């Protein structure tokens, strides 16, 4: 191999002879690969050349940096500045909060809403929230903080949910405590059939998935914060400013998502609109009960509710219906429950429902713990020669009732409460759909069984909530009118079903003007029950168990009802009447809002 005139060794010697002044800078060196034994370990000249080239390009040193800051080289300032920038990052995040605060941020929304909310707000300062645990601290900002200073984010304070800033919205100890409050107070109440609160699916799947969504998660997160702030406000632990603050941010993010094709009808954007609708309905029900509320305020609230409802309906339609939300089971069931509740309270078609591929309502095909109902269970219904399609629905209701009774009695039952809640709504819809189709041509006796079954499913799917009566109020009115068209002699083949029908109507009519009719009718129909004298409540309960019945939910209420109308003997003590409550259930148009308010926004 031919090399240059100066080998590494000769170059090294010339450098000593000529001196540093006459040395010519060397830009490259050749290594003779033909002599592997010589060049395996570079000599001192090669090492010096490499080190010299490295130093000439960038100054560096292998020595340890001195301890004194005055002797620190200029090149060591980079790590210090990086630390400073990390420390300043919370300040930047707080400034971002100020930029989107309600004081300086406007939302592309109904102008009347802002005026209405500003009238309800007593101060423009930053909302302050505090609860007895001390986990919630006042948010500080330039328009409401202490001395106009910007507070650092207390990441590792007790109760901090997102110490590394992974959530779609900025978080601090206040927002962390609000989300924690939502998990503890709202999530356990989302599935009414979960009597033992043994399922955490609403938290582990729906809520966690919503909070981790970086594309459309801001809208649902702010809606969650708004609903929690509203609950605390009704408890006296927060201000209205806190509610309006998060509501403004939620609406802003919803509008922002609507302008993007990939997030306009995303799961979390639909969920955010749904949560705002539920809050509007609950507040409307609360306002309607206040005699001091003006008609203008109620009309304004009604318009806002319709805006959210129409928007939600359109978004679900554009998404492809509830079936398109199959990957988000919790949201699908929540929307189904809400839609069917509106349908049952008004007896109008639901704004959305869950249909199979042929467009028919889904049947109860969940793996049941029980076999198909025996002929004994169906005998009283078949004795009345009911419509065959109604019998098919009743077969599924009997299976569902057996599963639900097992679920209520055994907390270790393997049934899925989310599926049970879904099918309770689907069974309600199937009964309503049967009743609504050709209602004028239906047999009145068939209609009575259908309406009583509807009340039964509504009651048993809300085991701990007396406000179910508002949801069943329209069915009670229609049952009253249908019973008047039906001769008592038509019930002669199944007198127990007549008593069961009247019991279902009487339970749902408690507290309303319909109660008198059912009390009188029960007394009249008692003559055909086969008893020569007043029975005990246990004797009547044995008859009820041959019909649709869940003892854990209905036994105590039935005893109180029968005692109240003097249908049974030996149980007239005052202690038995303690659970007999008279509720104001005459406001049918506020029924869904009242259900939401009692379940999520009550002071308990």
TrEMBL record:
The lineage of its organism: Eukaryota, Fungi, Dikarya, Ascomycota, Pezizomycotina. Coiled coil: none annotated. Residues 85-94 have a biased composition (Basic residues). This is Transcription factor domain-containing protein. Residues 1-97, 109-146 are annotated as: Disordered. Residues 1-20 have a biased composition (Polar residues). Residues 120-135 have a biased composition (Low complexity).
């Amino acid at each position: 191999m031919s090399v240059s005139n100066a080998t590494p060794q000769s170059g090294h010697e010339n450098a000593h002879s000529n001196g540093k002044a006459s040395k010519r800078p060397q830009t490259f060196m050749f290594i003779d690969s033909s002599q592997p034994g010589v060049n395996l370990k570079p000599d001192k000249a090669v090492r010096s050349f490499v080190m010299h080239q490295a130093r000439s390009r960038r100054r560096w040193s292998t020595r340890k940096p001195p301890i004194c800051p005055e002797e620190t080289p200029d090149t060591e300032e980079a790590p210090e500045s990086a630390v400073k920038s990390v420390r300043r990052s919370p300040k930047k995040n707080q400034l971002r909060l100020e930029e989107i605060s309600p004081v300086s941020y406007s939302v592309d929304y109904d102008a009347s809403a802002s005026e209405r909310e500003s009238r309800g707000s007593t101060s423009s300062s930053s909302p302050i929230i505090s609860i007895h645990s001390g986990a919630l601290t006042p948010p500080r900002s330039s328009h409401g903080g202490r001395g106009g200073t910007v507070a650092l984010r207390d990441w590792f304070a007790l109760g901090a949910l997102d110490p590394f800033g992974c959530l779609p919205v900025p978080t601090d100890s206040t927002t962390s405590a609000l989300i924690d409050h939502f998990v503890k107070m709202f999530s356990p109440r989302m599935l009414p059939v979960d009597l033992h609160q043994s399922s955490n699916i609403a938290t582990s799947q729906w809520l966690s998935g919503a909070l981790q969504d970086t594309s459309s998660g801001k809208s649902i997160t702010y809606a969650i914060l708004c609903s929690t702030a509203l609950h605390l406000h009704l408890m006296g632990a927060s201000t209205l400013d806190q509610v309006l603050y998060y509501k403004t941010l939620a609406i802003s993010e919803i509008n922002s998502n609507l302008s993007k094709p990939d997030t306009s009808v995303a799961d979390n954007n639909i969920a955010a609109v749904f949560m705002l609708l539920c809050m509007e309905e609950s507040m409307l029900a609360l306002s309607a009960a206040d005699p001091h509320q003006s008609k203008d305020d109620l009309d304004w609230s009604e318009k806002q509710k319709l805006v959210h409802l129409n928007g939600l309906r359109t978004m679900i339609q554009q998404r492809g219906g509830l079936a398109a939300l199959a990957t988000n089971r919790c949201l699908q069931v929540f929307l189904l429950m809400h839609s069917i509740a509106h349908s049952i309270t008004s007896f109008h078609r639901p704004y959305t429902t869950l249909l199979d591929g042929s467009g028919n309502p889904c049947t109860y095909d969940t793996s049941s713990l029980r076999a198909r109902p025996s002929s004994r269970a169906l005998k009283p219904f078949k004795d009345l020669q009911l419509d065959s399609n109604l019998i098919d629905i009743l077969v599924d209701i009997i299976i569902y009732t057996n599963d639900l009774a097992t679920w209520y009695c055994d907390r270790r039952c393997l049934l899925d409460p989310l599926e049970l809640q879904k099918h309770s709504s689907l069974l309600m819809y199937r009964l309503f759909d049967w009743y609504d189709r050709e209602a004028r041509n239906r047999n009145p006796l068939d209609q009575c069984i259908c309406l009583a079954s509807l009340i039964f499913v509504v009651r048993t799917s809300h085991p701990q909530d007396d406000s179910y009566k508002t949801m069943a109020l329209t069915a009670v009115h229609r049952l009253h009118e249908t019973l008047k068209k039906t001769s008592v002699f038509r019930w002669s083949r199944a007198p127990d079903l007549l008593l069961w029908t009247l019991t279902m109507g009487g339970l749902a009519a408690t507290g309303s003007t319909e109660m008198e009719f059912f009390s009188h009718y029960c007394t009249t129909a008692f003559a055909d029950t086969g008893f020569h004298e007043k029975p005990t409540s246990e004797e009547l309960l044995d008859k009820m168990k041959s019909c649709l019945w869940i003892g854990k939910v209905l036994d105590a209420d039935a005893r109180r009802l029968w005692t109240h109308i003097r249908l049974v003997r030996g149980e007239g003590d005052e202690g038995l009447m303690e659970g007999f409550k008279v509720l104001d259930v005459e406001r049918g148009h506020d029924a869904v809002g009242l259900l939401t308010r009692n379940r999520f926004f009550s002071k308990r």
